[in-house]
Amino acid sequence: MTDTATANTATEPSTGVGNAATKAPGFVDTLASEWRKFWALPASRNVLFVTIAITVGVSALITLFSNGADLAAQQTKGEYNVILFGGLLGVWSYIFLGANFVASEFRTGMLDYTFVATPRRTRVLVSKILIIGVIGLVVGVLISMVNAAMTQSALAISGYPTLNLHDPRLLRAVLLYIAVGMCLDGIVGCLLAVLVRNAVGALVLTILLIILPPMFSQFLGKAYNHTVPRWSLGALQESIAGISKPTTDAYLPTSLALLGAAIWVTVLGIAAIIYLRRADAR
Amino acid sequence: MIEVQNLTKRFGDMTAVDGLTFRAEDGLVTGFLGPNGAGKTTTMRLMLGLDNPSTGWARIDGKPLAAHASPLRVVGALLNASSVAPSMTAKAHLRWFARAGAIPDTRVNEVLEQVGLSSVGTRRVGAMSLGMRQRLGIAAALLGDPGTFILDEPINGLDPEGVVWVRTLLKKLAREGRAVLVSSHLMSEMQLTADKVVVIGRGRLMAELSVSELQGGSQRTPIRVRAAQPERLLDALRRNFTDMRVEHPEPGNGQQPGPGSVLRVTGLIPEEVGDTAAANGIAIYELTPVRETLEDVFMRLTQQASEYVASDAKSGALL
Question: What is the CATH number of the domain that holds B49?
Answer without folding.
Answer: 3.40.50.300
